[in-house]
């Protein structure tokens, strides 16, 4: 789902670049007529326009190349979607070993973990044959208490979205539209942003919920799914 969304967005970007070039071609043809009529002064704007268009087209091409590279190296877990109950095959309530088996990744304790009672685990790709770490998977953290996954955090560097397509960069208005107004918006205690929490009606549960954190412009900077009250903890395991 994420891959299709990104590819459609790339096609749209390329389409806009092509339309810009189509606009530029008649302008190039007209430059000869302008010279014939002696209106030399109009050549500079046309020339500047063509240069600008070509520069933009080059920049778009470079951006497309970078996005393709990023899409090509996405790990399977990064292509999963967040739901009320977990992230793809990783479900709330699993042990960390069950989560690792389900996601086919390994988990390591995060450096930020400050308590043995509550720990964050970060996923990474591990090659069991070579017994080596192959790659990290950024932007995902599993909160584990009593060897049970009780919360899954999605941080700013992650491409992961919810089943409804909400993710990093989504707006409060978009969240509100998806959940038909069944959200609670409260001030963030440390920033100028907000917490957007699904009501039990929207979540369909009194035990689990989704919480989105936004910046002062109302755009999502991170989000999480988890059990109450852990899903509401502003400082994670701290």
Automatic annotation (TrEMBL):
Keywords: Membrane, Transmembrane, Transmembrane helix
Organism lineage: Bacteria, Bacillati, Cyanobacteriota, Adonisia, Adonisia turfae
Name of the protein described by the UniProt record: Uncharacterized protein
Species this chain originates from: Adonisia turfae CCMR0081
Domain of life: Bacteria
Residues passing through the membrane, by range: 20-40
């Amino acid at each position: 789902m994420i891959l299709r969304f990104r590819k459609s967005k790339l096609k749209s970007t390329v389409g806009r670049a092509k339309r810009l070039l189509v606009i530029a071609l008649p302008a190039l043809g007209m430059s000869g007529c302008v010279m014939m009529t002696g209106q030399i002064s109009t050549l500079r704007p046309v020339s500047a326009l063509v240069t600008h268009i070509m520069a933009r087209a080059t920049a778009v091409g470079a951006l497309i190349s970078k996005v393709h590279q990023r899409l090509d190296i996405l790990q399977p877990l990064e292509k999963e979607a967040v739901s009320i109950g977990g992230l793809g095959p990783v479900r709330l309530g699993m042990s960390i070993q069950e989560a690792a088996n389900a996601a086919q990744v390994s988990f390591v304790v995060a450096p930020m973990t400050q308590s043995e009672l509550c720990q964050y685990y970060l996923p990474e790709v591990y090659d069991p044959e070579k017994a080596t770490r192959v790659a990290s998977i950024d932007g995902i953290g599993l909160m584990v208490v009593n060897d049970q996954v009780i919360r899954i955090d999605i941080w700013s560097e992650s491409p992961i979205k919810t089943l409804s397509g909400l993710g990093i960069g989504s707006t409060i208005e978009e969240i509100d539209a998806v959940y038909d107004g069944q959200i609670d918006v409260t001030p963030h205690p440390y920033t100028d942003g907000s917490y957007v929490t699904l009501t039990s009606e929207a979540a369909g549960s009194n035990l689990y919920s989704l919480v989105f954190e936004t910046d002062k412009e109302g755009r999502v900077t991170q989000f999480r799914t988890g059990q109450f009250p852990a899903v509401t903890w502003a400082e994670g395991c701290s």
